[in-house]
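Q: I'm writing up a methods section and want to include an example of the input and output format. Could you take the sequence below and give the corresponding predicted structure tokens, formatted cleanly so I can copy it straight into the document?
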Amino acid sequence: MPKPDPALLDPARYPFSCAIDPRFTDLDFHHHVNNAALADILQEGRIRFHRASAFDKALDDNDISSMLVSLSIEFLGQARHLHPLDNHLAALSVGGSSHTLGQLVTQQGTIIAYAQAVLVCVKDSQPMKNPPSFIESLSKWTLKP
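A: Here is the clean output for your methods example:
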């Protein structure tokens, strides 16, 4: 993925945010948050977004699950240990069985990373349609203009 569009780097455009504290074990030799640990922090942000948007409940109600099928991360800055990482998330698009999330990570106002994740609804390893309740609720979870 090329460097993200500057319009995607504005935290105010994201309808959901949560703070995640890096752990000491997330640090590299230079006391920066390790890139692999940052991928885990992005995953935690997606989980919290899906709880807030009721996507996880819609999956449970329909006896289906979701699978991450694509993840691209642009590492744009260095994160340190003693300050929370603010995860800002928004739905960028929705398809028949998938949806794409944009994630912006900042720390004390500094941009750390931008990621895009594509998730697909599945049952028995087969793609399933997005739950209607999730699609209906997405309008309040999309990237703001």
